[in-house]
Amino acid sequence: MAEVNLEDAKIKYKGEWLSIEDLTGEIKQKMEAGDMKITNLAAALEKLKTTLENAHELEIKIVLPREDYEKLKALGGGDDRACVRKAIMAFIEGGGQAESAPTAAPESKEKKKSIIQCAKCKTPLEIPSDERPIEIECSYCGTSRILKSEDEGEPRHMDHFLG
């Protein structure tokens, strides 16, 4: 498969980077000379045109801390555009999942979500923080309760019958 340089709008053909104009010029020269062996040139021209038609240019500004910028440059060979393109392609080829890097924060520092069920309607409720006491309210049935530190995470519905 031929290599295409999207930024310069060129395709590598027989070890040389050629633009659409270069390819069409070579095809014309061959035809004028009576040489009709232009299949490979035409295929390269078609490949380049199709690739360019299906490309989308991103115009963005990215601000990185110097340390992250240096890491990006080291991974991509120094050219900013090439570095960012490689990072985006790695992300896309990885199924859109960011790969965990050795510099990533440990999971223990991440805020752990607590989810409990409403005692009345059993709707899952997310507890927004670890601080206690905290008032929680079911967005479905409206039942509310103050969750205290000694509670095991299961709020009890206050409207119960004594027997």
Care to describe what's here?
This protein is of the alpha+beta class and 163 residues long. The protein folds into 3 domains: 4-53, no CATH class; 59-106; 111-147. Helix content is 33%, strand content 16%. The strands form 3 sheets. It has a 3-stranded antiparallel sheet. The radius of gyration is 30 Å and the shape is elongated.
What can be said about this structure in brief?
Helices cover 33% and strands 16% of the residues. It is an alpha+beta fold and 163 residues long. Helix 3 (66-76) packs across helix 4.
Key structural traits:
163 residues, elongated, 3-stranded antiparallel sheet, two-stranded antiparallel ribbon, 16% strand, 4 helices, alpha+beta
Shape: elongated
Mean pLDDT: 79
Q: Biggest sheet, strands in spatial order? A: 1-2-3
Radius of gyration: 30 Å
Distance linking N and C termini: 79 Å
Regions with pLDDT < 50 over 5+ consecutive residues?
99-110
Q: Please count the helical segments.
A: 4
Give the helices and strands as they follow along the chain.
EEEHHHHEEEE
Q: Helicity, in percent?
A: 25-40%
What layout of secondary structure does this protein have?
Layout: E1 4-5, E2 10-13, E3 16-19, H1 20-32, H2 39-53, H3 66-76, H4 80-93, E4 114-117, E5 124-127, E6 134-137, E7 144-147
Antiparallel strand pairs: 1-2, 2-3, 4-5, 6-7
